[in-house]
Amino acid sequence: MKRKTQLLLAGCLLFAACKNEQAPAPVIPNAGLDCKTARIVTSYAYQAIQVNCTSRGCHTGAIPRGRADFSSPDNLKAYITASKAVFAQRVTSAQADMPPSRFPALTKGMKDSLACWIEHSMPDQ
Predict the structure, then answer these.
(1) How far apart are CA 74 and CA 31, in angstroms?
(2) What whole-number distance in Å separates Cα of residue 76 and Cα of residue 118?
(3) What confidence score (pLDDT) does residue 7 get?
(4) Is 6 part of a structural domain of the chain?
(5) Can you give the residue range of the structural domain that contains 27?
(6) 115 in Cβ contact with 30 (< 8 Å)
(7) What would the pLDDT profile of 73-103 be if each residue is shown by its tens digit?
């Protein structure tokens, strides 16, 4: 009986977690960041990713979580190029769920900066 209850609960949680009736909201820069004129470069974006994603051991190493290896700027760019929509939804959108709730969330300014960097084709300089 206990096993059936656990399986039912797990199924309900899985169903609830996978249900998404609303598309992520677009990232709109705040008043402090004008993406048309902002110069966000790879070194700045990668530093933010290192602090929030790789230094915790999540997106680096032999088996990075979610197959998202951010251990170098080139790996980060390759992942974003291949999975731009996923990165936007999980990291820079208003509904972003990365980093996980056990870690401090990215600020709106940081999300906007990363989105702007991506919008400008991830410039190095």
Answers:
(1) 30
(2) 11
(3) 54
(4) no
(5) 23-119
(6) no
(7) 999 999 999 999 998 998 888 888 888 878 8
Residue identified by tokens 């969330």 is 105
Task: Provide the token pair at 15.
Answer: 């169903």
Read off the pTM: 0.67
Q: Give pLDDT, residue 29.
A: 43
Nearest to 54 by CA among 40, 72, 42, 66: 72
N- to C-terminal Cα separation, the chain: 62
The candidate with the shortest Cα–Cα distance to 111, out of 89, 97, 91, is 91
Q: Which two tokens stand for residue 79?
A: 């992942």
What is the domain count for the chain? 1
Instruction: State mean pLDDT over 29-54.
Output: 81
